[in-house]
Amino acid sequence: MLDKDGNPIQEKTSEGVQTVGAEPTMKYTEQVIDKSRRVCPLSTVMVEMLVKQMSAELANHALYMTFANYFEVEGLPKLGIYWRGRAREEYLHHSWIFEYLTTNDALFQYPPVPAINVEITDRIMPFAATVDREIETTRGINKIVDQAQKESDWATFQWLNGEDEGMLVKEQVEEESISRTILDMAREQATWLRKENAILDFYNGLGRK
Questions:
Q1: Residue 23 predicted with pLDDT over 70
Q2: Sorting pLDDT into bands at 50, 70 and 90, what band is 200?
Q3: How does pLDDT run across 131-142, given as a tens digit for each residue?
Q4: Distance in angstroms (rounded) separating the CA atoms of residues 65 and 87
């Protein structure tokens, strides 16, 4: 309410001087906010999808460590170093997701990691399998991006597409590219001693060791 001069009319109350007819300050806020965000800003579906992706990243870690073991036993220790590096990257991706969930106060149980049951038929097989595994990983991450867009969860959308921790979309472009290139190198007509040197040198040159 305004007086004849257009100024708000004020009156003394038990809670102090207040403007007559003014809406309670928090009334509109309480009407429009998503109250579930008081606990966690992520939806239940988003938390479930991110936890599932954590499991996938840990499974990749276990698979690549299996390949590291194979090549080291085969007498190709530099390929063991390469696969250990790839495994560390997968564990890092899982850690990014863990930190994002924790930062957003999402309470979850740590996911199970599927047991590795893979038959390594020859030395090329691990490299070809990695290309396919990274394509599958990209598919899973793209589903999370789609869900974030569907929910208008722009914070998660930006986190997935960012340039720092959580840049899983960009990271998968690199993961698939590296995997294809190294598969081509593994298929070259050369001794495996030469190929392991070339593969590790290439990988280390990317600054990902």
A1: no
A2: very high
A3: 999 999 999 999
A4: 6
Phi, psi of 18 (to 5 degrees): -130, 155
| Structure tokens belonging to residue 27 | 């009334």
State the Cα–Cα distance between residues 88 and 94, nearest whole angstrom: 10
What tens digit of pLDDT does each residue of 169-185 get?
Answer: 999 999 999 999 999 99
